[in-house]
Design a protein that fits this description.
The chain has about 375 residues and is α/β, with parallel strands linked by helices. Helices cover about 40% and strands about 15% of the residues.
Length: about 375
């Protein structure tokens, strides 16, 4: 088995230079770097990751705690995280917290005990135990999709404690509601997510902004929690359409709840958009397979995952840098479930960006 010394001899450089090339610890001239990589390839050298971690106190691994199994939305985020980590030479350890605060803390502790260099976490609606552990142990952390701060469950005093990567929520939701109002709807219902999540509170805020922009009063009986899952949304939708003054349009606040809402409407014999218009937050792979095709907010899921990795690597490179929040823009994809005419095939992929990217904190 070849050693680092063998690579150094073959490339005509020092062992230290080989180490700098493989670990990225110091800039190396391009021709020298290429000579080292050619020698590595020719000799079939494989770095001893365990030995390297003992020397550098780094394992070049990242822990990811998201509900990837139970929520298809996080599956796309996972793909973005995995691709970016692999490109940077990091391995990925994955845990599913099941959106349960106790289990969330347990899996993050296990990831930390396996000496990952940092963690990326989509926090639950009650992240107090998780936040306390991460701060106490000074674990390099990026919060993903759900943020802490005035809109989140963590409180405003924690907004600057962690790097955070998420999508814009309020603006795109306001755009959906305003669009429905422009089509003549005056009773617009919202199937909201799990209370305590920043995504829930921000999308409710956007719903109210959209109503206000259209000159409509907010009616709290038109906002019902679907608990961010299909079964809850099915119940919430049934409750909304059973109101004496039922909504003529409905917005669902995530992909799982869209499925529940559609199941409820179908079970009640209601036609979309003939009897009730429908828009949803979260575009998903089969949204354009329904009849009618679903008008939806498309989040940059894979880019969100990749950006979280890059932000974490920035944190590892500069532990004392100011915490920042990165928000990525969404796009409203107009199809026919809102009551608009079905777009022509050439327009199928067209979308309208509803917000622009913003970052709070240190510029990368």
């Amino acid at each position: 088995m070849s050693t680092m010394a063998d690579v150094a001899r073959s490339a005509g450089v020092s062992v230290a230079t080989v180490s700098h090339v493989l670990n990225g610890t110091r800039p190396v001239l391009p021709h020298t770097r290429q000579a080292v990589l050619d020698a590595v390839d020719a000799l079939g050298y494989t770095p001893n990751s365990l030995a390297r971690s003992l020397v550098t106190s780094r394992t070049r691994s990242i822990g990811l705690a998201v509900s990837a199994i139970s929520n298809p939305y996080f599956t796309e985020i996972l793909q973005g995280v995995e691709a970016a980590a692999l490109e940077a030479g990091y391995s990925l350890l994955i845990a599913d917290p099941h959106d349960d605060p106790g289990h969330e803390l347990k899996v993050v502790q296990l990831l930390h005990e396996r000496r990952v260099d940092g963690v990326i976490v989509a926090p639950s609606a009650e992240p107090g135990g998780l936040v306390a552990y991460l701060r106490r142990q000074a674990v390099p952390t990026v919060l993903l999709d759900r943020v802490l701060g005035p809109a989140g469950a963590g409180g405003p005093d924690l907004a600057g404690s962690f790097d955070q990567v998420c999508a814009e929520n309020s603006g795109p939701m306001a755009e959906l509601v305003a669009h429905l109002a422009s089509l003549g709807h005056r009773r617009i219902g919202l199937v909201a997510g799990l209370p305590g999540l920043s995504t829930t509170s921000e999308r409710i805020a956007g719903y109210r902004q959209g109503l206000a922009a259209a000159g409509l009063d907010a009616d709290e009986e038109l906002v019902v929690s679907g608990s961010s899952e299909s079964t809850g949304a099915e119940r919430a939708t049934a409750a909304l359409v059973a109101l004496p003054d039922a909504p003529t349009a409905l917005v669902t606040a995530n992909n799982a709840m869209t499925i529940g809402a559609l199941r409820a409407l179908r079970g009640l014999g209601l036609d979309v958009p003939g009897d009730i218009a429908l828009c949803c937050f979260d575009d998903f792979a089969w949204a354009d397979l329904f009849a009618p095709r679903l008008t939806a907010v498309a989040q940059p899921s894979r880019e969100m995952g990749a950006r979280a990795v890059r932000v974490l690597l920035d944190r590892l490179a500069a532990p004392d840098r100011e915490a920042r929040t990165v928000r990525l823009p969404c796009a409203v994809v107009h199809r026919a479930s809102c009551g608009c005419p079905e777009p022509r095939p050439a327009d199928t992929g067209s979308s309208m960006e509803s917000t622009s990217q913003s970052e709070k904190g240190t510029t990368p």
